[in-house]
Design brief:
The structure holds 2 protein chains of 2 kinds.
Chain A (H helix, E strand, L loop, with lengths): L4 E6 L1 H12 L3 E4 L7 H11 L6 E4 L3 H13 L4 E5 L1 H6 L1 H9 L5 E6 L13 H4 L7 E4 L3 H16 L7 E6 L8 E6 L1 H8 L6 E4 L2 E4 L9 E2 L8 H30 L6 E4 L6 E6 L2 H14 L4 E6 L1 E3 L3 H8 L4 E6 L10 H11 L6 E6 L9 H17 L6 E3 L5
Parallel strand pairs in A: 2-3, 2-4, 4-5, 5-7, 6-7, 13-14, 13-16, 16-17, 17-18
Antiparallel strand pairs in A: 1-8, 6-15, 9-10, 12-14
Helix pairs in contact in A: 1-2, 1-7, 3-5, 7-9, 10-13
Chain B lengths: L5 H6 L15 H11 L5 E5 L3 H6 L11 E3 L5 H18 L11 E7 L1 H5 L2 H9 L5 E6 L39 H7 L4 E5 L4 H13 L4 E6 L3 H4 L6 H10 L6 E6 L2 E6 L1 H8 L7 H5 L15 H22 L2
Parallel strand pairs in B: 1-2, 1-3, 3-4, 4-6, 5-6
Antiparallel strand pairs in B: 5-7, 7-8
Helix pairs in contact in B: 2-8, 4-6
The chains are: A alpha/beta, B alpha/beta.
Chain lengths: 405, 324
């Protein structure tokens, strides 16, 4: 049965903070400065007003923020942090450790570009730097998706078959600072949905124990793991990440039961008969949808696929969503300097390569450093895709959208 | 403070047991065992990357009989902050796996590299935030785990692989960071230096550090046979000489009404009272290969004099602070 909900005006940061308040994690450790996000400020207010039982640890850097979360999580806590851009980059070392030690931490990332030169606005270069680290990565299109993901992330992270950290990504400013109407659940329903944290079982020196720091059942966490076992442990992580594709679906279904909102890994839009389509992540996909509608009205068979899940990469869902479209454009706010294309393009092409009939694919890098991706620019992308269709060839595999000559 | 006796401590099981792979004559196991003898109940240990961590936890084995965790090199204090915050949160909420223990103590072990250099920021932050944990600096005065590279804790003149004694430059040209003063300046409730040559003193200070509310800091000098170049059976002897020469005086510092109150510990207090018992630094230096160039091929009188004077000055400053 769908639970009672109410509509409130929240920006993305507030949606994240509000959901986290309802979850009431044991420890929130954050350094909200490089660059600043409102999430931690809002959460500190909840702490100051006694609305949560969480210990708020105002650490001295993002590196320590995630390190404290790793310690907290290993001690059995639910641990949350939030960051963006260079702050996420500073955490890079600990991202791998948090994931490698299988700590189900939840982190909000208000995606912003990496310096230098310094710039505090949106793109996905921060999150793409974390894509190989072993974190589950969800991307949100609007504040509602931020709220939903911020509640659901705990169940995903702590699922018995997953036990991995989750990163909730949403575009800096475009979502983080834009107020929208958001349906929110009651505190009790959120509490009931997330339940109590469950722990992974492990073989301790004296038999099977829960994987946590507990004086009654002492184990060593984070040992030196040499040639003998490291590879096996990494394979376990990779396999668990792959396996999470099934488990996340189950959590999505439970979430749908209480909210009535159906969550998918990818959202195809007008793809059934599409001749030109765009795939991408994040807030820009809302604008793409508008443009698709306009083009359809003009008789262009346009379509789009929005990805909500980026890690694990939803290979089969994406293949199904793309279907038989002959020309596909990847729109992404990221880059890989010196690479054959930007990250999403490379991965989408990898997924499509084995198909008997694969579309032409071109990469459209857009919006770096917060440059606006306007409907006009998206129309240009579709025009470019139509030219590829007419010519039957991709002349420019990677291009930059809206950049001065 | 609850009483600590050698008899009681000798009966208590070790937290760090056999099977570790530290070098023969390593002081680190001695420090850890002595400190861990002084725990008062349920305890969680964190280690920074370093000799201790790599030697006691090679998967699938572990030498630790208490819950133990390693995360990275520079963040042991941040890791401990998260654990301590968890204990607080679970006590406050009265739920979660650690809620059932009336106290859970957190002890962090880190080397000089993980403290003076790469870990200083995390340590400073954790102390400023007032987390209730005990930080034990195991100071062997260089990055020994990776092959004796100089650190901010390496003393003046010591030869290391990145401050080698050559024909022109004679070992490290900079002095050791005054880490105790840096930590005391944070207003840390309890700071003490410890030396395994005086085990009861180590255990008493460790118990005090654990019992004091808020962050506490124990600084142990850990002679390293490999890095300091001396035979492994001389570890404790050389450690003792460090205190007898006042290179590493033993003291405690607690805070009273916002003021640091220094107190010399027995071995150093005895020297302060009878200065004629203070040994010249040569007694300490000449036993160690890292100071070989002070004596060979020729005795470096000027260098020895400079070093003796700086040790004397630091000792005098400490005595003044301790009011003796």
């Amino acid at each position: 049965m769908v639970a009672k909900q109410k509509i409130v005006g929240l920006n993305g940061d507030e949606a994240s903070a509000y959901a986290t308040k309802q979850v009431d994690p044991d420890v929130v450790a954050a350094y909200p400065i490089t660059p600043q996000t409102i999430i931690v400020e809002r959460f500190s207010e909840y702490v100051a007003d006694g609305l949560v039982g969480s210990e708020f640890v105002a650490v001295e850097s993002e590196h320590s923020a995630l390190s404290a979360c790793v310690g907290a999580s290993a001690a059995g806590a639910r641990a949350f942090t939030a960051t963006a851009a260079n702050g996420l980059a500073l955490m890079w070392e600990i991202l791998y450790i948090a994931a490698g030690l299988r700590q189900p931490i939840v982190m909000a990332v208000a995606n912003r570009c990496l310096g230098g030169p310094i710039n505090i606005h949106n793109d996905h270069s921060d999150a793409m730097g974390a894509r190989d680290s072993g974190w589950i990565q969800l991307f949100c299109e609007n504040s509602q998706e931020v709220y939903d993901a911020s509640v659901e992330a705990w169940r995903i992270a702590e699922h018995a078959d997953i036990q991995m950290p989750v990163m909730v990504n949403f575009d800096g400013f475009t979502i983080s600072h834009t107020m929208e109407n958001v349906y929110i659940l009651e505190d009790a329903d959120v509490k009931k949905f997330v339940g109590k944290r469950i722990y992974m079982k492990t073989e301790g020196p004296k038999g099977e124990v829960e994987f946590k720091l507990d004086p009654d059942t002492p184990i060593s966490i984070g040992p030196l793991d040499l040639q003998d076992f490291y590879f096996e442990h990494k394979v376990q992580q990779m396999e668990a990440m792959k396996g999470s594709l099934k488990a996340i679906k189950a959590v999505d279904k439970e979430f749908e039961k209480i909210t009535g909102r159906k969550l998918e890994y990818v959202y195809p839009y007008k793809m059934d008969d599409a001749e030109v389509a765009v795939v991408g992540l994040g807030s820009a996909m809302g604008t793409v949808r508008e443009v698709v509608d306009e083009l359809r009205a003009e008789g262009v068979k346009a379509g789009m696929v929005k990805m909500r899940l980026f890690r694990p990469f939803p290979v089969e869902d994406l293949k199904n969503a793309i279907g038989n479209v002959p020309v596909l454009g990847v729109m992404e706010k990221a880059y890989s300097i010196g690479g054959p294309g930007a990250p999403l393009y490379e991965e989408v092409k990898t997924v499509l390569y084995d198909l008997p009939k694969r579309p032409f694919v071109a990469d459209y890098i857009n919006g770096l450093g917060g440059k606006d991706t306007s409907p006009e620019m998206i129309r240009d992308v579709f025009k470019s895709l139509q030219r590829i269709k007419e010519r039957g060839a991709v002349l420019e595999p990677v291009s930059y959208v809206g950049v001065r000559e | 403070m609850s009483e600590i006796t050698l008899k009681e401590m000798s009966r208590k099981p070790d937290a760090l047991i056999c099977g570790g792979r530290l070098c023969a004559g390593c002081d680190e196991t001695i420090v850890v065992r002595q400190v861990m003898k002084a725990t008062r109940g349920p305890t969680i240990v964190t280690s920074a990357t370093g000799c201790l961590e790599v030697s006691t936890s090679i998967f699938p084995y572990t030498s630790w009989e208490v819950p133990w965790m390693h995360c990275a090199f520079e963040n042991v204090a941040a890791l401990a902050s998260g654990i301590e915050a968890t204990i607080k949160a679970m006590h406050k909420k009265k739920e979660g796996p650690l809620a059932k223990y009336p106290t859970v103590d957190v002890i962090s072990f880190a080397g000089d590299g993980g403290t003076y250099d790469i870990g200083l920021q995390a340590l400073s932050g954790a102390i400023e935030r007032g987390h209730d944990f005990t930080y034990v600096l195991i100071d062997n005065e260089a990055y020994m785990n990776t092959g004796i590279q100089r650190s901010g804790g390496t003393p003046f003149g010591a030869s290391t692989t990145t401050s080698p004694a050559g024909k022109v430059i004679l070992g490290k040209t900079e002095t050791k960071k005054p880490i105790d003063e840096i930590i005391i300046a944070h207003g840390t409730p309890y700071v003490a230096t410890i030396n395994t040559a005086w085990p009861l003193d180590v255990m008493k200070k460790a118990r005090k550090a654990i019992e004091v509310d808020g962050p506490t800091f124990l600084h142990s000098l850990a002679p390293c046979s490999r890095g300091w170049r001396f035979p492994p059976e001389k570890t404790v002897e050389i450690g003792r000489l460090a205190t007898q020469t006042c290179v590493f005086p033993l003291f405690e510092c607690r805070q009273e009404k916002g003021k640091p109150v220094y107190e010399l510990s027995a071995p150093s207090l005895a020297i302060a009272k009878r200065p004629e018992n203070k040994k010249p630094i040569e007694a300490y230096l000449e036993q160690q290969g890292r100071y070989r160039h002070f004596f060979r091929p020729a005795r470096k009188e000027a260098l020895l004099k400079e070093l003796q004077e700086s040790i004397d000055t630091r000792w005098q400053i400490l005595c003044e602070k301790a009011g003796v």
